[in-house]
Amino acid sequence: MRSEVVMPQMGESVTEGTVTAWLKEIGDVVERDEPLFEITTDKVDAEVPSPIAGVLVERLAKVGDTVEINTVVAVLDTEAKAGEVPAAAPESAAKAAASTVASTGAASGARTSGATATALAEAPTPSRGGVPSREELRRTRSTPLVRRIAQEHGIADLSQIDGSGLSGRVTKADIMAFIESGAHERAQGTNGSTGRIAQPSRPAPASPGLAPGERDHFEPMGPQRAAIAEHMIRSRATSAHAHTIHEIDFSAVFAARKRMKAEFEERGVKLTFTAFMVKAVADALRAFPVVNASLDGDQLLYRGDINVGVAVALEASLIVPVVRNVDELSLLGIARSINDLAERARTKRLKPDEVRGGTFTLSNHGIFGPEFGVPIINQPQTAIISTGAIKKRVVVDQKTDAIMVRPTAIFCMSFDHRTIDGATADKFLAHIRQTLEGWE
Amino acid sequence: MSQYDVVVIGSGPGGYVAAIHSAQSGLKTAIVEREPTERLGGTCLLRGCIPTKAMLHTADMLETLKKGDQIGVMANDVALDMAKMQAYKGRVVQKNAGGVSYLMKKNKIDVHLGHGRLAGKGKVSVEKADGKKETLSTKNVILATGSTCFHLPFIDMSPERVLDSDAILEMEEVPEHLVVIGAGAVGTEFASVFLRYGSKVTLIEMAPAVLPSEDHEVSAEAEKSFKKQGMTVLTSSRVTDVKADAAGVKMVVETKKGDKTSSQTIEASHLLVAAGRAPRTQDIGAKGTRLKINERGVVEVDEFMRTGEPGVYAIGDIVDTPWLAHVASKEGILAVDHIAGKNPRPINYRLVPMCTYCSPEVASVGLSERAAKEAGYDVKTGVFPFSAIGKAAILNKTEGFVKIVADKKYDELLGLHIIGPKATELITEGTLAMELESTIEELLMTIHPHPTLAEAVAEAAHAAMGHAIHI
C-alpha cells in the first residue's frame, strides 16, 4: 500500500523547511523511525525519521526545495520489496507538482515579483491548526484605509510595518511614516522572504556590484545563514549595543573541575567549563533581573524564567539551544543539559522549540583560542556574554603586587544600553567573576 | 486620615466615570463634590444634557401629537403642562443622580461633600457647607471641576427676565417671546424646546450662520428649518444693549449685511444668554503648584491629561478639548489608565462626535467639507436627503440629509455630517467607521437594514461614489 510522508511540523513557529539531503534512494527499504531525509529551517537542522516502514518509491522534493509543512515529500510502499518501485498513480504526481515549492532561488524570485497587490486582494491563508500567525494577524488587522494605501504603493507585506493601533493594527499614520521613510522601496528591492525592515532610517547597503570571475562560484545562502544574517543586522539596528570586558581568574574553577570531574564521569556527565559559566550566569541573572528582561515598546518585560541559550558552532553555521530554568538546576543538571543539547545540535537531532525562549545568551567560543570577542545581542534579549580562551596569563595580585601565572579568561558582555547602564552591566559581570573566582 | 490612590474633584460625567474606573482598577478612590443639593452628576446630569434632553423629549412629543392628524392620530386639545413637565424632568434627574450615588457605593468610592481644593503635595482639602475643613491624603488627583455658564459682561443677569441655561431650566411658565443669544448647541436646543412649547423665539448669532462650527450645508439646512418652523433667526448679529424690568426685556440688535450695519430694537418677555461656558478653575487651590492655567482659565495638560504638577490630572471642561460629556468621560478613563500604569493610547480628538439635540437634530464627526479642503485633501462629498428614505417618510420627518466628506485619493472617510431625525444616534456609525479607518467602500459594503434611517448613511456613501440608488 502506498503511504505518503509529509514535511513534519518542526515547532510552533516553523512553517516550512528546506530539504538538504536525502538519506535513502528510491527502492531502499526504510524502517520506521529511520532517518529518511535531512531538512534545515531558519531555526535548526534536523533529520526527519520515517513515520512508517516500507520501500521508498517516490521522492517529491529535490535537495534545495523549500517545502511547507504537511506537504507530501515522499511516498513509501508498505508492501513492496527492496528495489521494487510500483508506478505512481497519476493523481499523486499532479499533487506533487502542485505542492512542491520551487527551489530556493526560484522561490525568492517568485516572491519578489508576484507578491504585490495580489497578496493583498486575497484572503490570508490560515496557517495549520487554525491559529493564524502573527503576520496573518497583522495583515488582517490593518485598517481598510491602510490596505488601500498599501495597494497603491505596492506594499505587499504589512507585517514589516510596526503597528501602533490596537493589537498591533497598522494605522494610516504608521504606513505613511513607513512610506515617508522610504523603507518600502528598499523592501521591494530585496527578497520578500527576509521580512521586516528593522530600521527605516538605516541607509540601504550599497550593491557590491560583484563581477564573478571564472574561478568564482555562487552558492545560495541557506535558510539558517540567511536567518542569522537578518537577525544580526536587525539586532544591531534595534539595540543600543554597549560593551564591558572583564578578566576572570579560573584557578578556583580549575580546582573544582579537577575535584569533581571523576565523580561526574561516573554519572555519565562530562564536566565542561561551560557548565560552570552557565551556573555563574544563572546566579547573576537571579541577582540582576533586569539583565534577564526584554524591552517591549517602552515597557520592560521582566522574565520569570531564566533560560540561558548556549551557542554551539556547527560546520557552516551556529545554533543556540536553550537550557531552561537554569537557576533551578544543579551544576550536574546543567552539565547534563548542555552535553545533551550540544550533542544533538551537532547531530541535527535538535527540535526547533529547543532553540526558542532564551532570556540570555552565552557564547563560549573561547575553545577556538581568541582573547575575547564582541558579540551581538540575540533579540529580544537585552545582553549576551562572549567568553575568550582560558589561557595562562600573568596577573598582578592587587594587594601584594605579587606577579602570578593564572588561568584567566576575558569575558565581554554586550548589553542594550536602552535598558541597562554600565554600572549594572559591570555589577552583573562582577557577580559572575566573584562566583567563578570564589568557586568552592 | 485615609490615604487614597486617587481623589477626583468634581462628580460630573468626567469625574464620576474616572472614579468608577479608578475603583475598578483596584485603586482606593474618593470623589469630592460641592453641589449644594448634595447630588452627584455635575452639570451634565443636574443642569445640562439630561434635563435639557428631557425637555426636548416633551417638545418632540408635543410636536408629534400636534401633527398626529396628518397620520390619522386625532389627539385633540394637545397642551403642555409646565408643572408636570418640570416634575417629569425632576424625576429623570433624580433617578440618574441616585444612580451615580449607587455606583459610588457599589464601587466603594468615598464621597466627600464640600469644595475640594489642591492643598499641597499629595493633599486635597475639602471645605464643607458648614465651613469645617477636612484634608484627604492621596497619591493622585484628578481635577474635573467642569464649567459654568458664561455671562456677557455688558448684560446684567436678572433672575426674572435675563436667564442663563441654568435658570431657564427652572422656568415654570412658557415665555411669551424668548430671545436667545448664541446659536450654538445650547442656544439652538432651548430655542427648539420653547418654539414647540409655544413661545415666539428669536435666535441671534454673531457668526454668519447658526451652528457655526458645523459643515456649512448643515448650518444652512438648520437655519432654513428653524425659519420654516416659525423662528426668527438673525445671523451676523449682536446684541449691543439690554434693558430689563419687571415687564420684559428691551434690547438693541445690530445686524451686519455686507458692509452695512442696521440696528433694531427688540422687545421680548425673556432673554436667554447662551454665549458659551467658562471653566471653573478660579478656586481649585492652584496657587503654589506647577499647574499652568491660561488667560481663559483653561488648565494645560499633556496627551495623558497630566498637568504640570506631578500626580495632578485635569479632564473635561477645564481643559482645552471639546467640552462634551462623552469627551470628559473618555478623558477620565484615560487619566486613570495612565495613573494605573496601563500604557493607554491618547484620545484622537478628530473622532469626537458632536451632537446638537435641536429640531431637526444635528450631529457630526470628523472634518467638515471646508476644513477638509483647508487640510489639503482633495475632497469629494456625497449627500443623501432623508426625503428619499422610506423610514423618514413613515416617521413624517423628512427634513435634512446625510453628508459624507471623503478624500478622493483613497476614499478615506474624513467626516460624516447628519441633520435630520435621530442624527445623534446615527452618527455613531460614522464614528466607528472612522475609528476603524474605513474607506467609503466599507460603508457602502455594510448591509444596512431596511427600512431604517441608517440607510441614508449607506446611500450617502453610494452618492459619494457617484451612484446613489434611491434618488
TrEMBL record, chain A:
Residues 105-141, 183-211 are annotated as: Disordered. One of its GO terms (cellular component) is cytoplasm. Keywords: Acyltransferase, Lipoyl, Transferase. Residues 2-77 form the Lipoyl-binding domain. Belongs to the 2-oxoacid dehydrogenase family. Its cofactor is (R)-lipoate. This is Dihydrolipoamide acetyltransferase component of pyruvate dehydrogenase complex. One of its GO terms (molecular function) is lipoic acid binding. It comes from Lujinxingia litoralis. Residues 105-125 have a biased composition (Low complexity). Residues 141-179 form the Peripheral subunit-binding (PSBD) domain. Its EC number is 2.3.1.-. Pfam families: 2-oxoacid_dh (PF00198), Biotin_lipoyl (PF00364), E3_binding (PF02817). PROSITE patterns: BIOTINYL_LIPOYL, LIPOYL, PSBD. Coiled coil: none annotated. InterPro entries: 2-oxoA_DH_lipoyl-BS, 2-oxoacid_DH_actylTfrase, 2-oxoacid_DH_E2_comp, Biotin_lipoyl, CAT-like_dom_sf, E3-bd_dom_sf, PSBD, Single_hybrid_motif. SUPFAM superfamilies: CoA-dependent acyltransferases (SSF52777), Peripheral subunit-binding domain of 2-oxo acid dehydrogenase complex (SSF47005), Single hybrid motif (SSF51230). The keyword Cytoplasm does not apply.
TrEMBL record, chain B:
Residues 4-332 form the FAD/NAD(P)-binding domain. NAD(+) binds at G182, A183, G184, A185, V186, G187, T188, E189, E205, G276. Its EC number is 1.8.1.4. It is found in: Cytoplasm. FAD binds at K53, G116, T145, G146, S147, D317. InterPro entries: Class-I_Pyr_Nuc-Dis_Oxidored, FAD/NAD-bd_sf, FAD/NAD-binding_dom, FAD/NAD-linked_Rdtase_dimer_sf, Lipoamide_DH, Pyr_nuc-diS_OxRdtase, Pyr_nucl-diS_OxRdtase_dimer, Pyr_OxRdtase_I_AS. Pfam families: Pyr_redox_2, Pyr_redox_dim. Residues 352-461 form the Pyridine nucleotide-disulphide oxidoreductase dimerisation domain. Keywords: Cytoplasm, Disulfide bond, FAD, Flavoprotein, NAD, Nucleotide-binding, Oxidoreductase, Redox-active center. The keyword Nucleotide-binding applies. The keyword Zinc-finger does not apply. GO terms for molecular function: dihydrolipoyl dehydrogenase (NADH) activity; flavin adenine dinucleotide binding. GO terms for biological process: 2-oxoglutarate metabolic process. It catalyses: N(6)-[(R)-dihydrolipoyl]-L-lysyl-[protein] + NAD(+) = N(6)-[(R)-lipoyl]-L-lysyl-[protein] + NADH + H(+). Belongs to the class-I pyridine nucleotide-disulfide oxidoreductase family. The active site is a redox-active disulfide bond. This is Dihydrolipoyl dehydrogenase.
